[in-house]
Amino acid sequence: MFRLLTILFFSFCLLTTAVAFGRSTSYFEATITHMFSSECNSHCRSKIIKNEADYATILLLKLIGTKLQKELLNVERQIYD
Length: 81
Fold this sequence. Notes:
mainly alpha; 86% helix; elongated
């Protein structure tokens, strides 16, 4: 069950970063190939998943921050106009 959740979570991270933020598919192909190779143990897989989740979270927070900044500027313009 944990393995299934891990795969689903990693797939979610792949989709959100690849589609929304333009990561290349070759990067993800290389990452997935490495994850399922014999060179990568469970610690390695956990680290990859954590790094991808951290990267996706940071990018989403930057996007939200940019959106909020634009909205605040629009509100400020409406107040002073």
